[in-house]
Amino acid sequence: MYGIFFRLWALTFLGVTQATTVATNLYIVNKVIDPDLYPRPAVLANGTFPGPTIFGKKGDHFIINVTNSLTDERMLRATSIHWHGIFQNQTNWADGAAMVTQCPIVPNDSFIYDFDINQAGTYWYHSHYSTQYCDGLRGAIVIYDPDDPYIEEYDVDNESTLITLSDWIHTASPTPLLSNDSLTTLINGRGRSLQVEVTLNTLSPLAVIDVQPGKRYRFRIASLACDAPFNFTIHGHKMTIIETDGEYTTPLVVDSLWIYAGQRYSVIVHANQMIGNYWIRADPLFPRGYPGFDNDRNSAILRYNGAPEVDPETADSSMQPLNEDDLNSLKSSQPPGKPELCGADIVIPIKPTWHPDINLFDINGTPFTSPSVPVLLQILNGTFDPDQLMPSGSVYKLKANSSVELQLHGITKGGPHPFHLHGHSFWVIKNALSDKYNWVNPARRDTVPTGFDTNLTVVRFFTDNSGPWFLHCHIDWHIPLGLAVVFAEDPEGTSAHLKPPPPSYDEICPAFSKYTGDTAILRITEPEGHGA
Q1: What are phi and psi of 375, to 5 degrees?
Q2: In the 8-state DSSP scheme, what is residue 134?
Q3: How far is CA 264 from the centre of its chain?
Q4: Distance of CA 85 to the CA centre of its chain
């Protein structure tokens, strides 16, 4: 991994409870890279894929200066950065969702993201400007908890125990995908592609995760995918889930789990097997990815200290897969509202439809289109009526201090669709593939798959974070295709709720309004045949 920030600090955080200011720079650059031996131009943070891991602890203050140095006209050159899973309470302007909370940063300009993190867990950052993060602008965030309830249950939790999963395409993200042969699974930035092996008759190196016999490891599994879900396994080893998307769960032992774009899990793994090499597998779901283990694609290696440096020969089959109904919140917190369907103060159906004649999705009859002025600026300028807020038909007003129930209907076209909510985590009362409702202690998270045509997912959250917040499918091509809405949460109270943004906030929209470098690329939508 490329976690260049705070390595020494991360080793000593348990002895430090005082909040720290974490200041750093992310330089957004173009570079040709070949993580699977297929060279392609990319958009990267600090020139690496994944980008540098950002470490901190609960309560820290972050000052992250993002400088846009993009020059490659084949890809998008403006940018914005979203800090996925971070609530941005009082700093909605730092959420990074282009044209929802800010204008994109144009080339040769910079913007300072200045916010507190009063959460702990596994998060990530990525471009939130059209489909740009599929070109490489993504990295992990680890926020340690000085009061971690599981600290006695594991021995190692550091940069070496972070496992990032990414899908990787061989063409720039706005251009048509020719076939799934161009999809590679990268684990910690390394992987093998069938397309490359056939062309070059060689094998690219795989990621290796080293463990000491007898030690217990907290592996933080983060899906940085822009499309594919993965079935994740470590041969010969059980995994005890203790975290979903920054929220503690009761311990749950599994030997495999599906992880969708944007989701994260922490699992405890005991290195108690014979010294040797064991396959780590992240098998994507077809047609969202290209599954299979020929030439050991979709794989990495768990290597015990003392084992030879050779590929594993292990075989395994899952006998204890994750059933998401078995995930429960450690805090046993009941969801807000009455324990019955439609028992919240506000109930909103989220029903997507696919329109093949125009190649777009809609939600509740309206395809999302990016507004010409960020929703936050519209609100700060005194527009509170959802009928007046742009984009028309895609903004839902939420009253402060209210329980909100979202009824997320599945859709087979392009599915399964993982929906992510900015600004909040939510209680998952009903999973898509289940008939069970949990009103007592459901797991909390910020990203959830919504299944297929006949499926329903039910989640709840509480409106205690004023500002406009994005809800969207995290298959990145599906946002330009309309699969998103915005919640204007307590718009009348937003101005008073927010801390002042940095001076550069007032400068990025005038600069972007004059910028035309991405106009042609933004007209390109996801091609028929992968699209949906």
Answers
A1: -60, -40
A2: G
A3: 8
A4: 8
What are the backbone dihedrals phi and psi of residue 32, each rounded to the nearest 5 degrees, phi first?
Answer: -85, 125
By CB atoms closer than 10 A (0-12, 13-18, 19+), residue 236 is middle
Distance CA 446, CA 417 (A): 14
Question: Please, what's the largest Cα pairwise distance for the chain?
Answer: 66
Alpha carbon 133 to chain centroid distance?
Answer: 10
Closest C-alpha to 420, from 186, 282, 140, 224: 224
* Predicted confidence (pLDDT) per residue in 334-387, tens digit: 999 999 999 999 999 999 999 999 889 999 999 999 999 999 999 999 999 999
Q: Which two tokens stand for residue 137?
A: 């602008």
Report the alpha-carbon distance of residue 82 to residue 124 in Å, rounded. 8
Q: Provide the pLDDT confidence category of residue 10 given band limits of 50, 70 and 90.
A: very low
8 Å CB contact between 192 and 295: yes
Report the distance separating Cα 169 and Cα 172, nearest Å. Answer: 8
What are the tokens at 286?
A: 């077809």
Q: Name the nearest CA neighbour of 324 among 248, 261, 244.
A: 244
Q: How far apart are CA 274 and CA 278, in angstroms?
A: 10
Predicted TM-score of the model (pTM): 0.94
Question: Measuring CA to CA, which residue among 406, 495, 412, 487 is closest to residue 455?
Answer: 412
CB 60 within 8 A of CB 191: no
- Tell me the average pLDDT across 223-245: 97
484-489 and 395-398 strand pairing: parallel
Give me the residues paired with residue 248 across strands. Answer: 243
182, pLDDT greater than 70: no
pLDDT of residue 443: 97
Task: Retrieve residue 259's tokens.
Answer: 């992880």
pLDDT surpassing 50 at residue 408: yes
286 in Cβ contact with 415 (< 8 Å):
no
In this structure, what token pair is assigned to residue 176? 């048509």
Average pLDDT for 6-18: 46
- DSSP for 266-306 reads EEEEE--S-SSEEEEEEEEPTTTS----GGG-SEEEEEETT
Indicate whether 525 pLDDT > 60: no
CA atoms within 13 A on the CB side of 131: 29
The answer to whether 46 touches 27, Cβ cutoff 8 Å, is yes
338 token code pair: 């009455």
Q: Which helix (H) or strand (E) holds 282?
A: strand 277-284
pLDDT at 17: 61
**Could you tell me the CA-to-CA distances from 400 to 94, 142, 344 in Å, in that order?**
21, 30, 13
Assign residue 245 a region: left if phi > 0, alpha if psi is -120 to 50, beta otherwise? left
Per the prediction, the chain carries an average pLDDT of: 92
Q: Could you tell me what percent of the chain has a pLDDT over 90?
A: 84
Contact predicate 310/203, CB 8 Å: no
